[in-house]
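Explain this one:

_____
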Amino acid sequence: MEIISSLENPQIKKLKSLAEKKFRKFYGEYVVEGEKCVREAIFSGATITKLFVSESKQGEYEDIIKNCSEKTVVLTDKLFGKIADTVNPQGILAEIEMRHSEDFTPKSKPFLVLDRISDPGNLGTIIRTAVATGFSDIVLIDTVEPYNPKTVRASSSGIFFVNFYPLDTTSLIKKCKDEGIEILVADMAGKNVFKINKPTENYCLVICNEANGASKEILEGADKIISLPMLPEMESLNAGVCASVLMYEFSKENF
């Protein structure tokens, strides 16, 4: 098997280009790094288009290489160190095919709506908790791209187990009203979530922009506006923390 050592190799140039959103969109692919993420990608059934392994790690990842034999590229350790995005690279990364977004149809199963979430780390945290609590369908309204490298890392492999549906606010509200889906919006001015009657199905949970909160349109379309109570010393919570607490509160009967 050829061992690549040059940054000028076409396969390496393509790999590095996937750090940018425009190229991820062009190729329909994104990058995951590290043994855990690559193994989870295989376990989830994600389509690996190319596997990159450092020369000294071939024996350690022999089983993964066999699984992706025709798609495997071996790099010198020096080159792998240059293209890796982590401080302590594990000698393995992969290009993964993005899932194609289908038209969104609200279901009785609860789903998550992210309205203008702008921080990639927050989005990754939310995805991670969504998988843990069973919110596998996520509607994205003007939200940061989920295949951003920071989001992928923060999701801790959660990216493989959720479905994303880009949508606008007007379409979401109409679809929910037509299907009898209750819209619950998290907002600081809402009712204490621990004191309301919570639905167990036919609802969506909306988490809004970290800095600006809920938009006027989403608030007007809400069936319930809810909030997390807090002591006066703290004004607000990080969107990732807020979403995580709410998802666990709404799904606690499942555990």
